[in-house]
Amino acid sequence: MRSTRALLLLCVVLVAYGAAPFPVRSDEPVFEPAPLRRIEVEGLRRTRETVVRDVIALQPGDIVTAAQVEIVEDDIVDTDLFADVSVITRRPPEAPGEVDLLITVREKWTLIPLPFFATDGSSFSGGLVLLESNLLGRNKQLITAAFAGSDGFRGFFAYADPSIRGGSWTGRASAATGDSERTNELPDGSRLRRFTIRRTSVAGGLGYRFSRAFRIDTGLRATTRDVNDFRAGIDDRPPEDGVFLEPNLTFRYDGSRPRGVLRVGPDVQGTSRLVLHGGDPGTDMGWEVTVQAGLSIPVPVPDRSRARLQVSGGVAELSPVDSRELSARDGFRTLPYQTSVADRWGGGAVFYDAPVLNPSWGSIVLTHYWEGGVFDADIHDRQFFGGPGGGFRVYLQEVAIPALGLDVAYNMVDPGVVFSFSLGMQM
Length: 427
Known about the structure:
Elements (H helix, E strand, L loop, with lengths): L1 H18 L14 E9 L6 H6 L8 E2 L1 H12 L4 E9 L8 E9 L3 E9 L4 E9 L8 E9 L2 E10 L7 E17 L5 E19 L4 E19 L9 E13 L2 E3 L2 E16 L8 E14 L5 E13 L26 E14 L4 E16 L2 E17 L7 E8 L4 E8 L4
Parallel strand pairs: 1-4
Antiparallel strand pairs: 1-2, 3-4, 5-6, 6-7, 7-8, 8-9, 9-10, 10-11, 11-12, 12-14, 13-14, 14-15, 15-16, 16-17, 17-18, 18-19, 19-20, 20-21
């Protein structure tokens, strides 16, 4: 009993130590709050200076504190446009009662071509993804891609504006077309269905940032699809063809802050969407509601590590074509890769992420986790899953891709090893 209490006390001390700020040397000068006189930005090459100024909440005349200087630096880092950011204060001799902010940045490489090739022995596909996260130096994102292979051709583009005209409104637009083969299975390998789909879609959305942490986004997607070569499994109902409209609404609270290459703090997101048959108003309406919440806290060993807790769940009444994949994302990596869909699901996971190498070009982070959950649908029994997993993430210091890496997970309920690849996931 005493050993158990000692272990609990040690855990509390470690968490408290990790969450506490690092001690400040007593011989460092104390920054006295003062009115802001002006902001100077150095080191820009492609990026417009207005991009940096638009993310800074301070204006000339505002009182500057040490905490606000840290917030300014974090907000600039959050744009993911810069490999290095430094924000210092300076007392001008001609106005000693005021303060200047000197911001020095080093830009990342933001135009990134990513060749792609994959095969499972019986089919193959390859192509190119082109990402530009600082279009024309204005902090606009553009992604284009084209793939071809034994399953046919696929292509898409997506455009996002995180700050329309430097304000709080955000915008996005996308389009996609192509053929793909879909297979849905249970964790024990039982096939639900298999089919080939040809789909073309266009979408747009508008959002608003109420604060740095809280925003709402709404959008509409129009899709035309043709399902063929349906092969029944447990499910013998082929998906419908036609034109479909999908309005959606998302809210997100992101109170996390960067700590090295990782982030710590709370993050909550909720999404709802409808799927309407555009050509047949009498057809049943599909819908989905999902919620996800996470909390990351700093851990002192090794330096700048973190512990993370995540829970998520959802309920839906959708065609298999419209259902989201559960697998290949945090909390569901023990499920078969890109084959799991459900009407109701819930899961949780605990993670430990540790930077182990920090060369000049970036960082390598090892991650270990345990997850577990349940999902079901009207056509099959409740399915449980869970087990351990691990992997790595590579953070590239000079390139504007948040992370890329590989995960290996083991499902202890229906024994099996699952591999998944991560690209561009926020850490």
